[in-house]
Amino acid sequence: MKALFSTMIMLISLSYVNSRNKHLQSTLAAIPETQIIHTNGKTPLVEGFGWVSDYTLFNFGIGFKFALDAFIGYEFPVSYLNNAGNHALFEPKLYVEGSTHNSIELFFGIFSFRFNFDFIGIRYNFLEVAYLWSIDDYTQYCYGLDWSTSALKFHAKVEEFTNECSFGALGFLIDRIPECRSRRYTPKNDVYSYSVLDTIDKDGSYLPYTCN
User: Quick one: signal sequence residues (predicted)?
Assistant: First the structure.
């Protein structure tokens, strides 16, 4: 009975994250979700024209970027869900996209804020993996494999870049007291998004969601 209950909870969690059913999403919107990791990367397939310009003085100033291209990319978000138990959700994606990406960045010395304004002409997520794993009981998990398309969408998002330093107690022995690196913080949700025509968006499954 306990295993059955855990499986039902995981099915509900997975539906909350991946289902396109708006009624189900609104019903389960109270389930807390915390993103732990969100790595991503892109490789241009066709590089179009672009323009980048910065106006800074002593790391204070403003920067602009405009780019129009087509590329292949990936995303690998990892989230934590707490709903009658602890669960880890892995959602790697592979996609191709044709879009325009624009940004305005404000520099304030050791940190900056980048305002991204993206318009997606067409995006095809040809591989969407979902793997939900119970942290409390490692034998309980759910998995599935999807695909989806989206087009004519506008997204606005804000990112923060910070130069963070750590100081080692014994760093003076090797003449390397501070160790600094730039960190990028990207919120999961958009500040604003708009879809011109939702009927263009399609989705399907290679492998239906299954729980053990």
Answer: 1-19
pLDDT digits (tens, 9 = 90+) for 88-120: 989 999 999 998 889 999 999 889 999 999 998
Counting beta carbons within 10 angstroms of the beta carbon of residue 26, is it exposed (0 to 12), middle (13 to 18) or buried (19 or more)?
Answer: exposed
Tokens 């323009």 locate to 51
Q: Are strands 93-108 and 86-90 parallel, antiparallel or unpaired?
A: unpaired
Distance of CA 58 to the CA centre of its chain: 32
pLDDT band at 16 (very low <50, low <70, confident <90, very high): very low
Tell me how far apart the alpha carbons of residues 72 and 106 are, in angstroms, rounded to a whole number: 28
Q: What angle do CA 171, 177, 182 make, to 5 degrees?
A: 125
Q: Which residues contact 4 (CB under 8 A, 6 or more apart)?
A: none
| 38-50: average pLDDT | 77
The span from the CA of 170 to the CA of 67, in Å, is 45
Q: Is the pTM of this model over 0.85?
A: no
